[in-house]
């Protein structure tokens, strides 16, 4: 093969790769059909939590995202079905974890033990038995965790004990402690001190997080939220503030209507919440695949540093903590 022919072949391959990158929009619904199933802990011998599973009903090897709901994971994750279904449509098995329990118990890392064992050993067969594609496989070696509001302390507490197979941490409007009132004085972050693990981290907050409602306290008060988490992280950490939205605007519309009536967490009628959920899904998907495949998908991490994507204006921050952009990452425990 001549040098000129080789040159044009390489140019053609590069153009195809660039076209594929541009064609993929993580802020739109993905190509995979999504099925839902729930497994209640009291009905099985192998779980002590409840899980809501949103997964691609298709053949493939899919990473897993553990998602912990608000109020220290006591809310069934069906309340987040629009958001979690859209994430799953991009080829991610979303396991929403919840349990009616004292929020204090969820600060113990063992709270997750049975759930992780179930997901890694039994969930795949359970999905097949419930009508999911027989060639669907869970890539638990690429696991991620996310928590909303006071549910965000659960993945942090887990990582303080063990990295397991976790590749990344996503914190959605995180609030330290078991409640925004500070009634229960137990936290996972000590201001001014780093956490004892290093992992890529995405933190998404909203402009109305710290606005006080009728309860006389914000759902994410400044002293328990915001940069309290960002400053404590050791790995590459992205901070995204969707300034026009409220603390509970990631929920399905029927639950947002309850918030609009009660203003328990301050929310406004506009802008449309669907835009925000689409933005959240695309941001999560960009983070997950950018971390899993930093060679071919590193460009997706750029989405975490730009405003205006999916019609949502943001204020963005980032700290590398020594990470070379697009270099492979892993979770490590630190000794201080």
Structure report:
Mean pLDDT is 92; it is low at 13-21. The chain has a single domain, classed as Rossmann fold, CATH 3.40.50.1820. It has a nine-stranded mixed beta sheet with strand order 1-2-4-3-5-6-8-9-10, with helices on both faces. 47% of the residues are buried. The protein contains nine helices and eleven strands. By secondary structure, the chain is an alpha/beta fold.
- The level 1 CATH classification is Alpha Beta
Q: Counting H and I runs of at least 4 residues, what is the number of helices?
A: 9
Order of helices and strands: HEEEHHEHHEHEEEHEHHEE
Strands, total number: 11
- The domain count comes to 1
Radius of gyration: 20 Å
On the 0 to 100 scale, the average pLDDT is 92
Record the strand order, biggest sheet: 1-2-4-3-5-6-8-9-10
List low-confidence stretches. Answer: 13-21
Measured as a percent range, the helix fraction is: 25-40%
Structural class: alpha/beta
Q: What is the makeup of the main sheet?
A: 9 strands, mixed
Q: Distance N terminus to C terminus?
A: 57 Å
Overall geometry: globular
Annotated CATH homologous superfamily: Alpha/Beta hydrolase fold, catalytic domain
Strand proportion, as a percent range, falls in 15-25%
Which architecture does the CATH hierarchy give at level 2? Answer: 3-Layer(aba) Sandwich
Per the CATH scheme, the topology name is Rossmann fold
């Amino acid at each position: 093969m001549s040098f000129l022919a080789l040159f044009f072949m390489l140019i053609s391959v590069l153009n195809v790769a660039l076209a594929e990158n541009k064609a993929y929009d993580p802020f739109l619904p993905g190509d995979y059909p999504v099925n839902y199933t729930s497994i209640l802990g009291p009905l099985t011998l192998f779980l002590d939590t409840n899980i809501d599973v949103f997964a691609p009903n298709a053949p493939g090897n899919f990473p897993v995202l553990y998602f912990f709901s608000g109020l220290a994971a006591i809310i069934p994750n069906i309340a987040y079905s629009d958001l979690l279904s859209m994430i799953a449509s991009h080829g991610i098995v979303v396991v929403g974890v919840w349990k009616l329990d004292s929020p204090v118990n969820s600060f113990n890392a063992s709270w997750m033990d049975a759930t992780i064992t179930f997901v890694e050993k039994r969930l795949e067969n359970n999905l097949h038995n419930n009508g999911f594609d027989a060639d669907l496989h869970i890539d638990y070696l690429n696991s991620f965790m996310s928590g909303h509001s006071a549910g965000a302390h659960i993945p942090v507490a887990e990582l303080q004990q063990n990295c397991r197979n976790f590749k990344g941490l996503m914190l959605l409007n995180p609030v330290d402690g078991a409640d925004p009132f500070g009634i229960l004085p137990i936290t996972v972050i000590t201001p001014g001190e780093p956490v004892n693990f290093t992992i890529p981290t995405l933190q998404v907050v909203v402009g109305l997080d710290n606005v006080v409602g009728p309860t006389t306290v914000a759902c994410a008060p400044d002293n328990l939220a915001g940069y309290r988490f960002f400053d404590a992280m050791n790995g590459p950490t992205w901070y995204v503030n969707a300034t026009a939205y409220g603390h509970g605007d990631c929920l399905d519309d029927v639950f947002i209507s309850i918030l609009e009536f009660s203003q328990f967490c301050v929310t406004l009628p506009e802008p449309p919440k669907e835009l925000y959920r689409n933005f959240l899904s695309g941001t999560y998907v960009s983070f997950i695949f950018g971390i899993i495949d930093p060679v071919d998908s590193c460009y997706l991490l750029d989405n975490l540093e730009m405003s205006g994507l999916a019609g949502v204006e943001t204020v963005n921050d980032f700290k590398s903590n020594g990470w070379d952009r697009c270099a492979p990452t892993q979770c490590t425990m630190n000794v201080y």
